[in-house]
Amino acid sequence: MKLHHINGYIQSIYLVEYRYGLLLLDGCCRADIPILLDFISKQLNRPAKDLKLVVVTHMHPDHAGAAHRLRKLTGCAIAVANVPGHWYQGIDGALMHWTDLLLASWVAKRMKKPRTNLWYNAKLKPDYLLDDQEPLPGFPEWQALATQGHTDRDLSLYHKDSGKLYVADLMVKVKGRYIPPFPVFYPKRYRSSVEKVIKLSPSSVLLAHGGEISPEAEDYQHLLEKAPTTPVTHWRSVKTKFKRAISAT
């Protein structure tokens, strides 16, 4: 196994290379498609059809945005957590989808990335549904782990032989410290997911935002201390800011 770390549009891309095929550990941004295909072609000297599986860890723009298009271009399969329904459901879901796209664009602007189209279908059509601890189709060395909290369908991906664990947005690196992501819709599930990772004791942790790290006990403790006890979501943040603005007048 060779693990390739590619700098994506606003997040890290992790591409796993085997002689028999390529595994993409997350669905990336729409803007990452040319970056990824160029890497496969020019750096690996392999055809695009060698991409066999894309795992979408959750439905945010930098984790699901390229999945459908990559399947169309390469013939790869898409795997997601076995959770009923779609993340972006109903009117609230549509509004949240637009909000997440705007947040992704805001992050790109802060990173001084060129403005680009990040639109993607809010309703994913997967080929495989993954249960907790289920091996990945075609790549049984990798195991899907349910690590919910950020959303209701977050996955982490564990390679037992090397001890490497891709956790997507379970934690993010800000100013040298590891903190919970925004949003956290399910605080109890989030804490359980962090404790699950601690118990697993991976040799290294792959972050979507922060690269490959080897957290120490104090890092995990800081993460748990910062973990919210009530949901931290788009709407609650807006309400809180609105209340502060009203009270200040």
Automatic annotation (TrEMBL):
Give the matching InterPro entries.
Answer: Metallo-B-lactamas (IPR001279), NDM-1-like (IPR050855), RibonucZ/Hydroxyglut_hydro (IPR036866)
What are the residue boundaries of the Metallo-beta-lactamase domain, all occurrences included?
10-209
Q: Which family does it belong to?
A: Belongs to the metallo-beta-lactamase superfamily. Class-B beta-lactamase family.
Q: What is this protein's record name?
A: MBL fold metallo-hydrolase
